[in-house]
Design a protein that fits this description.
Elements: E1 6-14, H1 21-30, E2 35-40, E3 44-49, H2 61-66, H3 69-85, E4 97-103, H4 108-119, H5 132-136, H6 140-149, E5 155-159, H7 164-177, E6 183-190, H8 196-204, E7 230-231, E8 233-241, H9 242-247, E9 254-263, H10 273-286, E10 296-298, H11 305-319, E11 327-329, H12 332-335, H13 342-350, H14 353-356, E12 358-359, E13 383-384, E14 390-397, E15 401-408
Parallel strand pairs: 3-7, 4-5, 4-6, 10-11, 10-14
Antiparallel strand pairs: 1-8, 1-9, 2-3, 6-8, 9-15, 12-13, 14-15
Helix pairs in contact: 3-6, 7-13, 10-11
């Protein structure tokens, strides 16, 4: 029995360099990054990717104040995705709509803020917010979105470190194929820049990027790369079964074709290129493709010295020979590392390639690290392609979680 085909019918996003897909894509092709200096509690000014969407577009001031940044980003992206898909939130069959949002971590921001606040009152807990618990539960971003939309179907977050954005889409596709829901709102979000703990953690690992020019700070594959730029962001999609999308005449961005999720089981932080390559190979096989059928490989590369090399080793082992039409790029060079939103945003940045046959580049590569040299690597300037029929999106995370998602050009 053949499984239902799952297609993308809407995209809603906010990134450090754009608050909708059209702007985001235009900036990726024009080489426009979105990194700036941010005042971080206890640490001073640090480099970060900050989003500038309008939180009051879909929420009232009190709702923004009571809720969380991750919840606000989720609501904005969900509403934008539904609008892009031509779906009226009021007309959704509420108990047949699912919300699946990937998130790296949630709750640290709110707890840090409360501890800071009561420190000014001799740590008297009567000044502790009674909104703290609903703000910090792991399902908060999806829960806030369900409250805003009135959706009564399943709504929860998926904790998968920096692989979470891909996992949101993968899980949604599975739930649609199982017939559990008819419309899925899915992807990933991050509010990471609002917690000093993440900055401090990367700082303690000597993994936090520094550069005199913020726009050049995120530089995967460059010989002078020196770490991660922490960023916030979000990207949610509407997914539907093909027959439902066609029945209502929906625009179709692409088809979820294959995926794989596996684990390194080898280290808390250091990636395992053997397991990463295994994840990629299994995803390609799951899609019924060969490596040479993949036309864009979007890398996870975060601009850490060893991490980039190990991912390149994995990619080289899969696409190193016999793949002359495979192009390799990276989106974090523009927006930094959006953590749980990274995979979802990076996929979105490449989706328009199906239409314009153009591969956005990796920017800020002044001196390519020879250990990161890959066939088909697109550097600093966009590249036209003869054809783009399949996009492979890599997202890897701490504690060794790997995810690869493949989206194909929609062919009826």
């Amino acid at each position: 029995m053949s499984l239902p085909r799952i297609v993308i019918t809407g995209v809603g996003l906010t990134a450090p360099n754009g608050d909708n897909l059209a702007t985001f894509r235009r900036n990726l092709l024009a080489g426009v990054a979105g990194i700036e200096r941010l005042e971080v509690r206890y640490m001073g000014q640090l480099l970060a990717g900050v989003c500038h969407y309008d939180p009051l577009k879909y929420q009232k001031k009190k709702e923004v104040r009571v809720g969380t940044r991750a919840g606000s980003i989720s609501i904005y992206c969900a509403r934008e995705a539904l609008q892009d898909a031509g779906l009226d939130p009021a007309a959704l069959v509420k108990d047949r709509t699912g919300i699946y949002i990937g998130c790296t971590e949630h709750g640290n921001v709110e707890t840090e803020n409360e501890i800071w606040a009561i420190s000014k009152f001799n740590h008297d807990t009567k000044y502790w917010s009674h909104y703290h618990n609903p703000r910090t539960v792991a399902n908060n971003p999806a829960g806030e979105t369900s409250l805003n939309l009135g959706v009564t179907g399943p709504a929860y977050t998926i904790g998968a470190a920096c692989a979470a954005g891909n996992l949101g889409l993968i899980h949604a596709a599975q739930m649609l194929r199982l017939g559990e829901v008819d419309v899925a709102i899915c992807g990933g979000v991050s509010e990471s820049i609002h917690t000093f703990g993440i900055f401090a953690g990367f700082k303690s690992q000597n993994a936090l990027a520094v550069h005199d020019d913020p726009l050049k700070a995120s530089r995967p594959f460059d010989l002078a790369r020196n770490g991660i730029v922490v960023s916030e962001g979000g990207c949610l999609y509407t997914l539907e079964r093909l027959e439902d999308a066609l029945a209502r005449g929906a625009k179709i961005y692409g088809e979820i074709s294959g995926y794989c999720v596996n684990s390194d089981a080898s280290d808390y932080v250091l990636p395992n290129p053997t397991r990463q390559a295994e994840c990629v190979r299994k995803a390609v096989a799951h899609a019924g493709l060969r490596p040479s059928d993949i036309h864009i490989v979007n890398t996870h590369a975060t601009a850490t010295p060893l991490g980039d090399i190990q991912e390149c080793e994995a990619i080289r082992s899969v696409f190193g020979e016999g793949c002359p039409e495979t192009h390799v790029n990276n989106t974090k060079s523009f927006i930094g590392h959006c953590m749980g939103a990274a995979g979802a945003l990076e996929l979105a940045g490449n989706l328009p390639s199906f239409e314009d046959l153009t591969v956005h580049p990796t920017i800020n590569v002044d001196n390519l690290d020879p250990k990161c040299a890959l066939p088909g690597l697109v550097l600093n300037q966009p590249r036209r392609a003869a054809k783009i029929d399949a996009i492979l999106n890599n997202s890897f995370g701490m504690l060794g979680i790997n995810s690869t998602l493949i989206v194909r050009r929609f062919v009826p």
